[in-house]
Structures are given as C-alpha cells and as structure tokens.
Structure prediction request, 362 residues.
Amino acid sequence: MDNLKQLLMELIPFKTMHSRPEEIHRCIEYIESYLKAREIEYRKIESQGIPSIMALPGPGRTPVILMSHIDVVDAPEGQFTPFEQDGAVYGRGSLDDKYAAALSLELLSRHLERVRGAGGSQKDLPFGVLITGDEEVGGENGARKALSEIEADFCIALDGGRLQKIVVKEKGVLRLRACAKGKAAHGARPWLGENAIDILTQDCMTVQSFFTESTPDHWHKTAVLSRIQGGGASVNQVPDSAQAHFDVRFTENDDIDGIVERIRPLVRSELVVDSRGDVFTGGDSPYLDLLLEIAPETRPGFEHGASDARFLSEHGIKGIVWGADGDETAHAPDEHVNLESVRALRRILDEFFIRLEGRNLS
Prediction:
C-alpha cells in the first residue's frame, strides 16, 4: 500500500486540467516512465491532442480492462499539493480519478511480477490497463478512441460508485444550448429594439417545463440551467443576442431526441445540441457475478452522473463503474480518497484477477 500511496502522491501535483494541456502530456510521460522502469509493454495513442496509455496482455482479446483517467477539473494552485490526514489523501484528482490510475498501475506491476516469478509473461495476465486524458470533457478522444482499438470481454471503469455499490447503469447526458436573437437599440428607446434576454428568459422557462418530474430515487430526466450569456459591454443598449446552456440528464425510459424536437416549435430561440452521451447499461456478465461472489457486501446500483463507461456498449464490451470511497468530494475543494477503501478495493481486485487466471468466463 505504501507504493500505491506514494504513486498517488506523485500523480496529484501534475495540474492535468484542460486549461493546461501540457500538464496532461507531462503526466502521461511520467506514467510511461513508470511502465518502462518495470519493463511493461504498452502503447501510447493520441487523438486530437489527447493522449491515452494502453498496457494490455497482448494483441488478442483481453478478458478484463481497468479503465481510469488522469485529467481533472480546474482548481486553484494549492489543491495540487497532496497531503494525508485522518486516513485519507487530499488533493485535486485524489478521488476523481488519480487514485484509480495509481491503483491500476500498481495492480498491473505486482501481478506481472508474480506471473513472471512463476515463469510466465505479460501475455499470461487476465487483465490490462487503459488510462485516458479527457474524461472530464466528454471522453471522445480518450476512451472512445482507445476502446475502438481494444477487444475485451469486460471493463471495470474505476471512476464512480463506492466500495459497497457497483454501478451497472448511468444516465445519459445531453448538452443543450438555446440561442436567442433580438434587435439592438439605444437603452433610452427600448421600443425600437427587441430584447434577446427577454426572449431567452421565456424560452428557458419553456425548456424547463419539460423536466418537472420528481420521484424518491430521482431516476428521471433533469435539466439544469447552468450558464446564461447575453448583452455586450454597453449597459445602455438593448441586447440583440443571448445564450443559455442546459445540462440535461436522461434515462433509458426517455426519448430525449423526441423531447428536444417537441420543444423546438414552442420557443423562439434556436436549440443546438452541443454533445450527447447515451445511457450506460453494463449488462449481465459472469465477471460481475464473480466480483459479487468475492465481495458479498457489494450491491449493484445506478448513478445519476455519466462517465466514459457510456462508450462500452458501442464497442460490444460489458462492464461496470466502481471505485473507492471519498465521501462524495469529487470536484470539491476538500476532494479526498479514503485509504482504507482503496486497500479493500485492491484486496478484492487481487483475488478477482488471481481467480481469473486460467479460466475463460466469456
């Protein structure tokens, strides 16, 4: 565990925000040096400037992939100085998701050392590792690209859930933008213009009227009005343009494309879909059954957030989202991961991989 904790402490100081792309590359280079020092074969790929690392048993089909990411959301300088307190490691990315990258690398290193000691090689491992660099901005050039080049039976996305909750279903996400156009005029003569912000305000209320459900488990579609932009530098002017951004989450029960089409004729603003990610459903798998057998206190469940796991189904890979506990502090100023839960997660995965050796569950 000391090696794992030390590796996490070394990964956190890389300021792997998308406002600092050079730091993402520096962190990936550090991971490359880790793998080279242990003579672990790997591939580095890059798409649209986003690097990913794949360390697989060989060119054929891989039974299990451990998937994580090293990019983080923006944070002030001080959050990139890690520290340990009360059994937890604090720092930006400690929970989301650098502990998972560290755990994946440490598991790979230790199991390869064990297999080599028995006369085997990397091709005898029942799992491989995928570490990407753009989960926080959609994963299109990281997980989506990398998974298209991997044949695997099962994937554990170490990026959510908690020790006692394996996520087998996540909501889809749609980024919707409403663009209103008005007519500029002097602020002293508003009757000569048309206020785009007024138009947008009414349209935002219309959009939100389609997302009013409320159930105890909140497994329903939602829309958050997350950003509004309008007007120019001059206060004494009727604004001629305004935009609103919505973070929409939806379930397998929602025809989200149909809902957007129903809204369009009811608003004056232009509705633009900036991005769309499907609902993740992991599917039944003997690999999941084995995990639940090893960890009987863990239960399958669902999550309202979205992760790179949503790309698994389009590549025919079953999987789950799982991870260590961090008191739901991802993206928070006090982000941390509880070390005892990391230890427990490692013990479970250790047994899981040992029991997989020599077995074919596909």
